[in-house]
Structures are given as C-alpha cells and as structure tokens.
Write a structure and sequence with these properties.
single chain; about 475 residues; alpha+beta; seven-stranded mixed sheet; six-stranded antiparallel sheet; 17 strands; about 30% helix
C-alpha cells in the first residue's frame, strides 16, 4: 500500500492532541498528494464525523480548525459549540485555541474549501487561504498564522475517541498459564483430517508493513521460548519480503516441527505494477510456487519458469488464507487497496479457501490495550475497528482476530502469547474446514463413479442387435 504520511512533527502532534483530549488522529486527506482543490477535500473528508484541519505555511505556523460536525455540502451554515480554531508554533510552548463567537455559525457547509469565516481554506482551488478575523472567530492574524497566506501543506484528520472499556469483553479469553499450555499442546498435536497431509499450510497476505513477517517471528518465538527473528521484518514503505517463503516452526531449540507451515509473501500495494501480483497469488494457492521464489511485480510466474512447481499435491497447496492489516491504518486503506482485497477475496472464494483477518499492532492503535493487553476485547476502539474491517473487506466479524506481534520486547509475555496462540488455533480450525470439504468432494466424486458403474453394470447387452431389431 502506498502509505500517505503525516507532516506533523511529534511536538506539533503532542500540542494539537492537548487540545483534543484522549483521541487518535487518522489522516484522511493530504493536499500535496490528493490535490489542493475543494473537490479532492470533499471526496475524502465528507461524512467523516469529527475532523481537524491542519494547515502549514512557510512562516512555521501549523494552524487550522476542529469541528465535531460532518462536512456534507448541504449549503447550510453549521453551528457547532465544540468547534475552535487553533495555532501551533515553535516559539510558543502552549498552542493557541480560539472558540467561536457566540451565536455565529462555525462553518459554511458548501462545495467550496472549508470556510470557517475567519479562515477560508483552499480558496479558488489554490494552496492558499483567506484570513478574516472577527468573522465567526476573533483572533490576531500574527498569532494565528504570522500573516503568511500561502499553504505549503494542507491535511485533514478524522478525530477518533478511544472510548471507555466495555463492561464485559466481546470475546472471552482465559489469560492463564494453563490456557497457554493447552493451546500449545493442541497446536503441537494437531493432525489434518486427510492422512496424506502432514502439516497445515497457512498463507499470510497483506499490505506493506502490516506485520506478516513479524507475526511469524512472534509465533516462532512463542514455541522456541525466546525471541527470534528468522523472517526479515522492517518498517520500510516498500515490501521487505521480496521472496515467497515457507517457514517451519520448531518446538524449542532443536525440537520437533509444529504441524503448521506459515507462508509469507511480498506485500500488497495499490498500484497495479507494484507489490504482489494476483496471478502469483493464485499459483501460490495451488502450490505451484517454490520456496524462495523471487517475485517480479511486472511479470507473474509462468508455467515454464524455473520457480514453477509442475507436480503438486494437496501437501503443496494452501489450506487457509490469513489477511494481515495494521490496526493503526484501517482508516487509511484507500479504495484502490480495498478493490485489490475484493479481487483477492473473489479468487480465494472460487478456490474454496477459508479466510481469516488478523488485526496487528493493537497496542499501538489503542493506549488502553498498550497498558494491558487483556483489554483487547474490552476496548471500544478495537471493537469498532474490527467491525469497520469486517464491513469494508466483507469478512465475518467472527473471522477478525486482534493480535499483538513482538516488536521492541526482549522477553516473552504470557498474555501476548495466548492471543497469538489463539489466532493460530483458529487457523488450524479453518484449515480443518478446508480438509473436510476435500473429503466431501472426494466422497461425492466416488459416489457418482459408483452410481455410474452400477448403472453400467445393469445396462442390458444387445448382442449385436440394435434396439429397433429386438423382437
């Protein structure tokens, strides 16, 4: 995924958040990427709930407006008692906050750029703004923006509250050492329903930086009993994984293999000529791609290429597909990326493969979960993001699993392990569903063949005479 990043420095973001309270900012619109026009603004910012405008100028000011209301191009003057203008600059330790003038509207909800009276942004579809102190808001121009009316950047963020903790978790998890051991034993003793298959093969698919490789490293660490880094993971905006990799997990150093193979792929990107090709994905599903095959975004793997495995069995094919999405970037999934997910889902459904969605980095997305991982199923915010992903990707909520990968820790954590192991158990359960369908299909085929043989056996032999010649 081409990631659109914020231009806010940590200090600027800290000061802005001090005005907004216990919230998280999700970047919706960045003018240098999406265009300095009213149409581009409304295309990405309408009906998004509470938002904050962040404008930048060459004088070093970061300033803008907050509203708790929707932009909807209604043509009406919108009143909002919670709206305010603000300004942040390096010379001042505390941000400037300007409340609206009593009785006046907060902004005019028109098809133009955001018009707060005192500040009118994207005027005439240009990277500039108008300053009208005393209209809806009273402020000193020098303190607000330094008199520089040209914009070097213009961003809009959705303001999302983390909410309180639910009185009861929306899923029940036992956070005990006994439960961790039960999960580990169940996974290590897993046996596929089909005797000829010895290990379940699970494919991880997701945007660049979602945490696919980190998930394998985390699972491997749990079974090894210490931190490992077998799969290359990173934070680059291009996929760190450039090969198709199949990873075997061992129980302890030098121990036996766990009956699970996690397969890692190149990250998805929204551009058609970048990231993992969908045709390559289909070949992976069917087992035709060899381990360590080097992906080529411009050319999918061909049947006569060296990396193509001609003879395949059910052991080589994928038995469960796991989509991996960064919880922090749920709101930044572009329509192009959602369309790519939809195309992948269609292909995957056609092949009858069960699918799960992992929400990674839940601790980074919600501070309540960062304080205590056991809050993951009590966090209103995490539940909201899970539902949002379920709806936008068309995956049942029961198939959406929040997890936390190990990233900066040096030691394992029991609660984190339980969350990871529970996800693996779901993957094996879904792989079982795939195997059961194979058994049923084989049984149906055998029944049809047997029926044909029975009919063929009872068919009368005409001894050289045609039907019309029989007396």
């Amino acid at each position: 995924m081409s990631v659109v990043t914020s231009s806010l420095s940590k200090d600027q973001q800290k000061k802005l958040l001090s005005l907004l309270g216990h919230v998280r900012l999700h970047l919706l619109y960045k003018a240098s990427v999406h265009d300095f026009t009213a149409a581009a603004f409304h295309n990405r910012c309408d009906k998004q709930g509470p938002t904050v405008i962040v404008a930048y100028n060459a004088a070093g000011f970061v300033f803008g407006a907050y509203t708790s209301k929707d932009y909807a191009q209604s043509g009406e003057a919108v009143k909002d008692g919670d709206a305010f203008l603000y300004s942040v600059n390096e010379k001042e330790n505390r941000p400037l906050r300007v409340a609206g003038i009593t009785g006046q509207c907060a902004f005019k909800d028109e098809a133009t750029g955001p018009n707060y009276g005192g500040l009118v942004f994207l005027h005439d579809d240009k990277p500039e703004f108008q300053s009208n102190p005393g209209t809806s808001f009273n402020f000193q121009a020098a303190a607000m923006h330094g008199g520089d009316l040209k914009l070097t950047e213009f961003e809009v963020y959705r303001v999302e509250g983390f909410g309180d903790l639910l009185p009861k978790p929306w899923r029940n998890i036992q956070w005990t050492a006994e439960r961790k051991q039960q999960l580990m034993n169940a996974i290590q003793n897993y046996k596929p329903d089909i005797k000829s298959v010895h290990q379940a093969r699970v494919l991880l698919v997701g945007p660049v930086g979602a945490g696919k490789s980190s998930f394998f490293n985390a699972i491997n660490s749990v079974f090894r009993g210490n931190m490992t880094s077998q799969a290359i993971a990173g934070t680059a905006d291009k996929s760190v994984t450039t090969q198709f990799r199949t990873y075997t997990i061992k129980a302890g150093k030098g121990g036996g293999a766990v009956p699970l193979i996690l397969c890692d792929t190149m990250g998805l990107e929204e551009k058609p000529d970048a990231g993992l090709d969908i045709e390559d994905l289909v070949n992976i599903y069917k087992g035709h791609v060899k381990d360590r095959y080097q992906f080529s975004p411009s050319t999918p793997l061909l049947a006569d290429a060296p990396g193509f495995k001609q003879q395949v069995t059910l052991n080589d094919s994928i038995h469960c597909v796991v989509y991996v999405v960064d919880t922090c970037k749920v709101s930044l999934l572009t329509q192009k990326m959602l369309d790519k997910f939809a195309s992948i889902r269609k292909k995957t459904n056609q092949l009858g493969l069960p699918q799960i969605l992992l929400m990674t980095k839940v601790d980074e997305a919600c501070p309540l979960v960062a304080e205590d991982i056991k809050n993951v199923y009590r966090s209103v915010y995490i539940q909201t993001k899970a539902r949002e992903l379920s709806e936008s990707l068309g995956i049942p909520l029961s198939c959406v699993l929040p997890v936390k990968n190990y990233s900066e820790e040096l030691d394992l954590d029991q609660e984190t392990d339980i969350l990871l192991l529970a996800a693996v158990q779901h993957m094996l359960n879904f792989a079982d569903s795939f195997f059961e369908n194979q058994v049923l299909e084989d049984q149906e085929t055998n029944d049809q063949l047997e029926l044909y043989r029975s009919s063929d056996h009872q068919r009368p032999v005409l001894s050289g005479k045609t039907k019309h010649q029989v007396a």
